[in-house]
């Protein structure tokens, strides 16, 4: 039996995303395998980050980050 694939799941390419931040851990770049386009209108991107990462603490403190796909 083949696996049923949702039609919308194959519309966006996935890649390694670079998540950039600055905060208590200084400038930081994290390679994030779980970065996905969700929508073009509005432009939405989902990333999954471990809660113990320096990047997450930087984002929580500064309230900003960058994504390079």
TrEMBL record:
Ranges where the Flavin reductase like domain occurs: 11-69
Origin species: Candidatus Nitrosocosmicus arcticus
GO MF annotations, alphabetized: FMN binding
Pfam family, one: Flavin_Reduct
Protein name: Flavin reductase like domain-containing protein
Cofactor(s) required, per the database record: FMN
Domain of life: Archaea
């Amino acid at each position: 039996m083949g696996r049923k694939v949702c039609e919308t799941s194959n519309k966006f390419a996935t890649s390694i995303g670079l998540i950039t931040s600055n905060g208590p851990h200084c400038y930081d770049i994290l390679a994030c395998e779980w970065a996905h386009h969700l929508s073009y209108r509005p432009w939405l991107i989902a990333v999954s980050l471990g809660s113990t990462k320096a990047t997450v603490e930087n984002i929580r403190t500064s309230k900003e980050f960058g994504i390079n796909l």
